[in-house]
Amino acid sequence: MTVTHNCVLPNALRIPALTKLANKRIVLASASPRRLQILRQFGLDPEIVPSKFAEDLPHDEFSNVYEYPVATATEKAVEVYVRMVEENPDDPPSLVIAADTVVLTKIASAGSNIHDSLLPEVRPDILEKPQDKGDNLRMLLELNGYAIKSMDDRCIVHFHDSHISILEAYVDSEEGMDRAGGFALQERGAHLVSRVEGDFYNAVGFPGSAFFKWIGVLINEEDDFMDFDI
């Protein structure tokens, strides 16, 4: 029995990237409502199959910190793809989308075109989700008055030099407990941020514009990209 899939929304722009994804089984390997919301805003409504990958790759095994989130996202996508193929080999996903967001406590030059000449050659510390309120406050104190990067499509988030009472109030809200770096830029965490250089959606959790541009590049470079029967 042939299963029909179409994750492209009716109001999506008629661009090559979305046209190519029409009638394909597209899966988001994440339970993040923020990533799903961003993809829907760009016209794609994928299936949700959260990855079971433990996300426990050792930070110190990566000489380049920018490789860490790429490796984690790759493991997420592979885990979901393999699991779905094993569960239903007759209806495998055409594309599995995975992402990993981390926050760096220092700005490092690593190929970004944002003020590279001003970025010191230091290894940033990686901040993921805080373990508890104390860890959340520690992260915010490290970021306070700082500029940070997200990657691999990268942007710089500039923080106010906020009073400790503001940081403590934010920690008590518990909003940042499940967010990389311990803050939610698109919600009350905006109190802590002065400005963003680069893709706002990337800082929120998924670089939608860069993703669809990348799909377009693959279409141009590979004539048979995703031209297969499932």
TrEMBL record:
Keyword Chloroplast among record annotations: no
Pfam families to which the protein is assigned, alphabetical: Maf (PF02545)
Protein name (database record): N-acetylserotonin O-methyltransferase-like protein Short=ASMTL
GO MF term list: methyltransferase activity; nucleoside triphosphate diphosphatase activity
GO biological process, any: methylation
InterPro entries membership: ITPase-like_fam (IPR029001), Maf-like (IPR003697)
Keyword line: Hydrolase, Methyltransferase, Transferase
HAMAP family: Maf (MF_00528)
Keyword Methyltransferase on entry: yes
Coiled-coil portions: none
Cofactor(s) annotated in UniProt: a divalent metal cation
